[in-house]
Amino acid sequence: MTEEETVVQQMVVQQMVVQPLVPPGAATCTVTFTAIFTRITATRHGMNGATPDSLMLSPTDQFHLRRAYDEAVIGFDEGGCPIGSLLARGDVVLASGRNRRVQQGDPIAHGEMDALRRAGRQTTYRDTTLYTSLSPCMMCSGTIVQFGIPRVVIGENQNFGGNEDFLRERGVQVVIANDPGCIALMERFIREKPELWAEDIAQQL
Ligand SMILES: [Zn+2]
Predict the structure, then answer these.
(1) Which DSSP state fits 39?
(2) Which of 95, 101, 151, 204 could bridge 119 with an S-S bond, Cβ 3.0-4.6 Å?
(3) 184 in helix, strand or coil?
């Protein structure tokens, strides 16, 4: 539950306590209301089990993240690692890309690196957001910091993650969408091609 939701809920509970019409079974009413309130909040944002980070996704974020996911799906169909990315300046897409380790025999061509390469030279990255279907590895996180990209929207960090604090500690805003589609795609890839996944993250099986 977000801080905002907690505050609102506490206000509601306080109102119920001082409300003279509350019957003796007020405690039961409060519990019931809490459950309803949580459902309403999730519904208002169009998602179930929403996390605080995912509530920070704007419609533009959702659109760009979807395109990064589409890149990941293309990569999967190509037999590669299904990780897609996109660099945007507001509504404007500068480039999208995907992991091409298999397709190009290039171990450095992670989704984020591919999108940045395809975006070409930029005078500044200070007004950009990088979208990626999977939490960035240290190579990509280092590049994000090196290029001064201020904001990263991550599709999911359940199948891989751990560099979010590295980014946050360097002033990067990190938004984690916990997107079910991104999670399911990576789960399937890791299940079906564990050797390729181990190769991509430099781990021994
Ligand atoms: Zn990477």
Answers:
(1) H
(2) 95
(3) helix
